[in-house]
Amino acid sequence: MTAPAALRHHPDFRRLWIGGTISQLGSHITRSALPILGVTLLAATPAQMGMLTAIGTAPALLAGLFAGAWVDRLRRRPVMIISDLARAMLLGTIPVAAAFGVLHIGLIYCVTFIAGIFSVFFELADLSFLPLLIPPARLVEANSRLRASESIAEITGPAIAGILVRTITVPFAILADAVSFLASAFFIARIRTPEKPVVTSEQSHLRREIAEGLRLAFSTPILRSVMAGSGAFYFFGSFIGALYWFYTLRLLMLDPIIVGVLIGLGGLGALGGAAIAGRVGRRLGAGMSMILALFLFGAANLLLPLAGGSIYLRVGLPAIAQLVGDCALTIYFINEVTVQQIMIPNQMMGRLGDADHGDGAGPSRAADRRDHRGVRRSAACACGRSGRDFRRGHRAPPFSIALDACSR
């Protein structure tokens, strides 16, 4: 049996893969439907849209290290199942509120924030759960398959969201995401690989465990570099996330269906990135692959503030940015996650897996630039600074060499 076939037929990985694919499809429907809900139905301002994105990213900053320490104390699979069920119930409140005519931006804020906390727990548990199922030599392949599924969800999710928005209205389109979390919990519950009991000292303390994880991160040049560069990316990249829907719907005056198609093109690019990430990493080294991928992402997204004028430019330039940028970003993410899973001890993965996220201030600051010129400048600033700061964060000389050794 060939190596790819062996991974594809790994029963527990297949269950994790299927559940994750369904969940990603539902999440991409919500990622398209929620901004449409804010911009159209609730008439949200740019500042409110920025606040919504900031609230969505704030849990990683406020609860990331604390959640990571707790995840390291617990078995990962129950954490993932509980997080899925909680997010399903939270998202279900949106169509219920709409049905009773009490839907308000404040409810969207609350659901986004609380669901974001459970997402932090899920993602940290998921990051450290995969190495328990798959040997280190297969992690690049496994992460590539998971990222490819996410890319397919990115292609189909916005289109499905557009259809649901047209047929059953925006709030009820979000119900699809709640159902997808239930499906994810079902498949994860069927995983049979036993987890080793988590051994914790009677004298252990959360603050001490968090400090231990941070010492490892800052004392390891490679991990320190990854955190510095990724933190810069998450912070400045959030400018684009906060303004993208407002920019395309209000400034470029594109139809929501066209914007959904543009995001779907990004999924095609990400699918291509997932297909070549392993080859690029082997040829260039994981470190150089990550650096060049982020620079390419920033260069591609510089096309966004240049869009305008004819319909060809308003659609064509964002389309190129989505295809090229998402391809590069996928190459980066696959290499980043694999490096973390190889270098960080599994019992410390939760504490360090979320340490490289940026804070939630970027979206709110971008949203304060409310005039049309400010939106374009914010996008340009985000593209340029994330790539430049990532390069500054990766000055450790042995970076590429060490990561090549890890991959081998």
Description of the molecule:
The protein has 408 residues and is an all-alpha fold. It has a single domain, classed as Growth Hormone, Chain: A, CATH 1.20.1250. The protein has 17 helices and no strands. Helix 4 runs antiparallel to helix 8 (175-189) and helix 10 runs parallel beside helix 15 (361-367). The longest helix is centred in the last third of the chain and has 33 residues, at 311-343. The two termini are 21 Å apart. The model is unreliable at 1-5, 355-382 and 384-408 (pLDDT under 50).
- For the termini, the CA-CA separation is 21 Å
CATH names the topology as Growth Hormone, Chain: A
Low-pLDDT stretches are: 1-5, 355-382, 384-408
Tally of separate domains? 1
Mean pLDDT: 77
Concise description?
It contains 17 helices and no strands. With 408 residues, the protein is an all-alpha fold.
Outline the secondary-structure elements.
Elements: H1 3-8, H2 11-41, H3 46-73, H4 76-99, H5 105-133, H6 139-168, H7 170-173, H8 175-189, H9 206-219, H10 221-251, H11 256-284, H12 286-301, H13 311-343, H14 349-353, H15 361-367, H16 372-393, H17 399-407
Helix pairs in contact: 2-6, 2-8, 3-5, 3-9, 3-10, 3-15, 4-5, 4-8, 6-11, 6-13, 9-10, 10-15, 10-16, 11-12, 11-13, 12-13, 12-16
Spell out the key features of this protein.
408 residues; Growth Hormone, Chain: A; 0% strand; mainly alpha; disordered N terminus; disordered C terminus
